[in-house]
Amino acid sequence: MHKLLFILFIFIQQLLAAQDRGTSTVKRQQQVELYVTTTNQQKVLYKTELNDSGKQINDARQVIEIDPSKTFQTIDGFGFTLTEASAFLINRMPQAPREKLLRELFGTGADAASISYLRIGMGATDLSTKVYSYDDLLPGETDPQLRRFSLAQDTVDMIPLLKAILRINPKISIMATPWSPPAWMKDNNSTIGGRLLSKYYPVYARYFVEYIRQMKSEGIRIDAVTIQNEPQNAHNNPSLKMEAAEQADFIRDHLGPAFRRNGITTKIIIWDHNCDMPEFPLSVLADRKANPYIDGSAFHLYGGQPEAMSKVRDAYPDKNIYFTEQWTGSKGDFGGDLLWHFKNVLIGSLRNWSRTVLEWNLANDSGFGPHTPGGCSECKGALTIDGSAIQKNVSYYVVAHASKFIPPGSVRIASSGVPGIASVAFQTPEGKIVLLLMNDSGKIQKVGIKAAEQQVQLELQSGLVATVQFFIGYEK
């Protein structure tokens, strides 16, 4: 067995200077906790509580200095896409282990991941038990008045599970995303690819309104919608091809006005695809009449680099950035996926203004299903569920390293860089300081971390990922 993968030294100044005239010295509670995950899975979210050693690093180049006075974006939450297939699997677990799992995922206890944000399909995703919309018709039929609109399929698994989650965490945020409109609204009458017919733009806007209203009547508030999942991917089932000009037209002349007329405050978010095409959201935001209706842009990272998010934000600093999807595959390696996702998805998106970090599917079975015909057959969920047996996979730990410690309302704060160390810092609403970091140098690194009056010295083995939590004058 290897020895502990890190050596930790902490310098903590615990005493405030006594005042003149013999006033007593005051001790502040100053405590630091470290949670680590290793690539070999010997330690996963392993907690170490640290003690004062009186040592510090003197080389400033090897010290991460955290400055809470310089702030960036506010965090909305961390989580996953709760697909209809995920709901199907969780709802078929025996009651006791199901309730225990939901508390571990969405609760706030010591063993909970405290997931705070969910993305759901507006209709089927490619990880659903069947392909469906909320207004499916026979070939040749149309329903421009949406008289046959129904959430019936979602009442089987999705809505009951969302209600159970809301009982545990009533404040969880929910983003809804369509993979495809009803086939009869499209130019190819298919759930795969095709384009939304312009004559149905006003009907599809009412479709969004009706969905939000009916979900609200079920006690489920939709905080945000994206216009289309991966609008440049027309090969999934379901899917839709949508260009930037089409999104701008739809928002400017139909969806935005429909939300305004109906008093709907749900955020409208564009793009929801890769970081290799920032010109798409930039083009939509450049439409002066569509722009006021748009809250921000959402990104995936199957192409491009996280810095594309900053490019969009720099051009439109009044618009928000969201990271909404990244998969892990059945052929992936835990260690390799851990490091890539921690560096690029988690730290990368947060350092580039994202208010959310959402990994892809919450749960699948051991056969990487259920999925639609033509849907993803290699997508590995955060959880693998077979009956009452649950396995936590790599994306669970990537998200939990953040969601467990960085609640909604936390603010990203300035932190300096150290060569070979990827990191990002936050201050929580309670005043705690949280640092996410990983050693990406390929060698053992000695790193100091300065936060207020505390300094931590770490010796990190290559590939270690960690969350450091500082309790500065905060009573646990």
Low-confidence stretches: 1-30
Q: Hey, roughly how much beta strand do the residues contain?
A: 25-35%
Q: What structural class do the secondary elements suggest?
A: alpha/beta
Strand arrangement, largest sheet? Answer: 1-22-21-4-18-19-20-23-2-3
Q: Report, as a whole number of angstroms, the end-to-end distance.
A: 34 Å
How many beta-strand elements? Answer: 23
Oligomer class: single chain
Radius of gyration: 24 Å
Provide a count of the helices: 9
Shape: globular
**Overall domain count:** 2
CATH architecture descriptor text of the largest domain: Alpha-Beta Barrel
CATH superfamily of the largest domain: Glycosidases
CATH secondary-structure class of the largest domain: Alpha Beta
Characterize the structure shown.
- This protein has 476 residues and is of the alpha/beta class.
- Helix 4 (201-217) packs across helix 5 (244-261) and helix 8 packs parallel to helix 9.
- It has helices spanning 84-91, 95-106, 158-168, 201-217, 244-261, 279-285, 307-315, 334-350, 394-403; strands at residues 6-12, 30-37, 46-49, 63-74, 77-82, 117-121, 173-177, 224-226, 267-275, 296-304, 320-325, 328-329, 354-361, 363-364, 379-380, 383-386, 389-392, 411-415, 421-427, 433-439, 445-451, 454-460, 465-472.
- The chain is 23% helix and 29% strand.
- The radius of gyration is 24 Å and the shape is globular.
- It folds into two domains: 6-72 and 412-472, Immunoglobulin-like (Sandwich), CATH 2.60.40.1180; 76-408, Glycosidases (TIM Barrel).
- A ten-stranded mixed sheet has the order 1-22-21-4-18-19-20-23-2-3, with helices on one face.
- Residues 1-30 have low confidence and may be disordered.
- 48% of the residues are buried.
